[in-house]
Design goal:
This is ABC transporter permease subunit. By secondary structure, the protein is mainly alpha-helical. The protein has one domain: MetI-like fold, CATH 1.10.3720.10. 69% of the residues lie in helices and 0% in strands. Helix 5 packs across helix 10, helix 8 packs parallel to helix 13 and helix 13 crosses helix 15. The relative contact order is 0.11.
Length: 315
């Protein structure tokens, strides 16, 4: 009969003891985490309490709790508005256009930079592509307006070629291409950083094995490089899908005008005018809540699709 020495069996630590050991072991890491946690709690989680004004007729003198409930009134006001379909359509067109053309751009840039052997040239290209990310939106919009003006650089080239100048910023068909193109230009370098890091993490022995097997550059790309960064691509795709309905209004407000409302007016700019400028905070909260719900549905759906198709996902 097997005899077990009870003295050699250590008693299982309680949850509190395990937490105390974990905190003492990694105390400096948790101290560094505190500011990040406080940021999310104060600026993201606490404001969720204010979302209930989407179902109330909010009055500052009565406060959030004292304001009367109105149910889905503000949601109905938005969906029955003559501008609802226009702003939803424009938001989707700009977001999907940016995703379609902007998502592959940093991947392609990272792959091209990965093939450059000259370190000096590679760093120069990286610096030039990173810089637009750090330029403020106001400056970017000023550059766009100056370049597309009647006497701007672009129209000067057009007239030099013998064509009539184009009024880019007052013709509605040009607004979305200009917005999408400049957004991609501003973000492509910065967004490529994560893919460059993923490429650096690929085991070089895999490339060596592929070369020994007779694989050229294209085969290495298809069998080693792309599979190596696929998890990163999937995660970034899911995160981008989760913000399709969210476009900042700052750049839109600085570029659009009454002539381009039909293709430029999006949900956030509409909410800014109706909700913030007109001080209809309940309406703004209702539309913001609608945006958040749609983004959450898209995030969960795309995550599930990616998990089934590639075995890679956020969760």
């Amino acid at each position: 009969m097997l005899m077990v020495n009870k003295k050699t069996i250590k008693p299982r630590k309680s949850f509190g003891q395990r937490v105390k050991v974990e905190l003492s072991r990694h105390k400096y890491l948790y101290l560094m985490l505190i500011p990040v946690a406080l940021y999310y709690i104060i600026f993201l989680y606490v404001p969720m309490y204010g979302s209930i004004i989407a179902f109330k007729d909010y009055r500052p003198d009565l406060g959030i709790l004292g304001s009367p409930w109105v149910g889905l009134k503000h949601f109905k006001d938005f969906f029955t508005s003559i501008y609802a379909w226009r702003v939803i359509r424009n938001t989707l067109q700009i977001s999907l256009g940016t995703l379609l053309f902007g998502f592959p751009a940093p991947i392609i840039l990272a792959l091209l930079l990965n093939e450059i052997r000259s370190k000096m040239f590679k760093k120069s290209v990286q610096t030039l592509t990173y810089l637009p990310h750090f330029i403020s939106t106001v400056v970017i919009c000023s550059i766009i307006l100056n370049f597309t003006a009647t006497d701007g650089v672009i129209n000067s080239i057009i007239t030099a070629l013998g064509f009539e100048p184009i009024q880019f910023m007052i013709r509605e068909e040009w607004f979305q291409p200009i917005y999408i193109g400049t957004t991609i230009w501003q973000q492509v370098g910065w967004d490529s950083i994560i893919y460059i890091a993923a490429l650096a993490g690929i085991d070089q022995q895999l490339y060596e094995a592929c070369r020994i097997d007779g694989g050229g550059r294209l085969r290495q790309l298809l069998t080693v490089t792309l599979p190596g960064i696929l998890p990163t691509i999937v995660v970034m795709l899911i995160m981008n899908a989760g913000k399709i309905m969210s476009i900042g209004y700052e750049k839109i407000l600085l570029l659009y005008n009454s002539n381009t409302y039909e293709t430029a007016d999006i949900i956030s700019s509409f909410v800014y005018r109706r909700g913030i400028v007109d001080m209809n905070y309940s309406f703004a909260s209702a539309v913001g809540l609608f945006n958040s719900v749609i983004n959450l549905i898209l995030l969960v759906s795309v995550n599930r699709i990616c998990r089934k198709m590639t075995d890679n996902s956020l969760w």
